[in-house]
Amino acid sequence: MGRLAGRLALITGASRGLGAALAERFAEEGARLILVARTVGGLEEVDDRVRAKGAEAATLVPQDLTKGEAIDELGGALAQRFGRLDVLVGNAAELSALSPIAHTDPDTFERTLAINTVTNLRLIRSLDPLLRASTSGSAIFVTSEVGAVPKAFFGAYAASKAALESLVMTYAAETSKTNLKVNLIDPGPMRTRLRAKAFPGEAKDVVALPKDRTDLFVDLAESGCTRHGERLRIV
User: Fold this and answer.
1) Confidence of residue 193 (pLDDT cuts 50, 70, 90)
2) Terminal-to-terminal C-alpha distance of the chain
3) pLDDT band at residue 191, thresholds of 50, 70 and 90?
4) 3-state SS, one letter per residue, for 114-133
5) Could you give the residue numbers annotated as active site?
6) Backbone torsions φ then ψ of 146, nearest 5 degrees
7) 8-233 CATH pick, 3.40.720.10, 3.100.10.20, 3.40.50.720, 3.40.50.300
8) Is-contact 95 197, C-beta < 8 A?
């Protein structure tokens, strides 16, 4: 019996990086998983590792999160099958090409905002009734340090994360009198494909592996968690 035994958790961006690490850790803690990502093969590989740990096979949702209508339909499909959702981890994100603000392509900016911010708005709209149906729902969204402290050349990514933080904190304020707990986590530097794109010359051993950044997520996903409306950073 793990700390998340019996909890039903949905994780986006679950085919690699932090999302995959969270899937494996949540499975170890006894959670039932719904894994969402674009890459079917990646999802299947994560599911194989989950089952190798003796956990129940995950429900795999190979979905492009830029397709908003599909997210809108996700809540209804999960309601029919499960009737509730205990944990949502909004993890999927994209880093656009780094450039000065004055040179940022508007289409690139809009795509970054769509994936990092609008996708999470749609997830909230679609899954809010299921999270409220849980006796102790938890919604956790992954942010970045540049969402709070902008950094040169990260304009599109920073703006999308700043918007996400405002969105999530508004959601937290609106759910303060419910059983639902809503929080943000900045996991700090990790050895992921997104970071490698931002810092291509960085030595791999100077940042943590995603699997070493999962403890706080488990804390917030537990049924007894009381933290709400917080922006937490893993150091």
Assistant:
1) confident
2) 28
3) confident
4) HHHHHHHHHHHHHHHHHHHH
5) 157
6) -75, -10
7) 3.40.50.720
8) yes
